[in-house]
Write a structure and sequence with these properties.
Blueprint (H helix, E strand, L loop, with lengths): L4 H29 L3 H18 L1 H6 L8 H23 L6 H40 L4 H7 L1 H10 L3 H25 L2
Helix pairs in contact: 1-4, 1-5, 2-4, 4-5, 5-7, 5-8
């Protein structure tokens, strides 16, 4: 039996995203419960460090480093960025006294969402294209004619692979807000 697109692709997106927020809330709850709220401040440092480590994938992709396979480093990037985001969300907590940290957290949530959307939508599009091509080949259509018939679908998938054109600028806005947050903390800390 075939799974619906929602179950196969959208549900995992919502599952990972919701799980990230729920885990952050649970950690924050226990920090408050055991009066360890100050630990949350340091989770921001740890979370930021974990997210920075996740960018080894970007360094490999741009051939700045040569070690590691891109596929494994992409998986590492996804998981480390997700874990680091949880720690940063716990660090942020619920503070209504400053807009800059809220903007940074909002951009963090958007960045994670665009990363997950890119991952899962690209899977949908690529798999759909493969299935359509296989169906045409099974009908007896030769490979060249199948590729001609699926030309616009192939172009669409190719464009979808460029989802990073959205994800990357959002990541840079997040980086700018994080740097601004750190600078203001250093400037105004007592």
């Amino acid at each position: 039996m075939k799974q619906s697109v929602f179950i196969k692709y959208l549900f995992p997106f919502f599952q990972w995203y919701t799980l990230m927020i729920v885990i952050a809330i649970i950690i924050d709850y226990f920090l408050h419960r055991f009066q360890l709220v100050a630990v949350g401040r340091y989770l921001g440092y740890v979370g930021t460090f974990v997210v920075i480590i996740s960018f080894v994938y970007s360094l490999r992709k741009r051939k700045i480093i040569q070690t590691g396979t891109p596929k494994k480093l992409l998986e590492l990037h996804e998981y480390l960025a997700w874990i680091g985001s949880i720690l940063i969300i716990v660090h942020a907590g619920i503070h209504f006294n400053a807009i800059l940290p809220w903007l940074a957290i909002l951009m963090l949530l958007i960045t994670v969402a665009t990363g997950l959307i890119g991952k899962f939508l690209l899977l949908v599009a690529s798999e759909s294209l493969k299935v359509k091509k296989q169906e045409l080949l099974n009908k007896g259509i030769n490979k060249e004619d199948a590729e001609k018939e699926l030309f616009f679908d192939s172009v669409t998938v190719g464009l979808m692979k460029k989802w990073r054109a959205v994800h990357l600028p959002i990541t840079f806005v997040l980086l700018a807000l994080v740097i601004l947050h750190i600078v203001t903390i250093v400037m105004y800390s007592k």
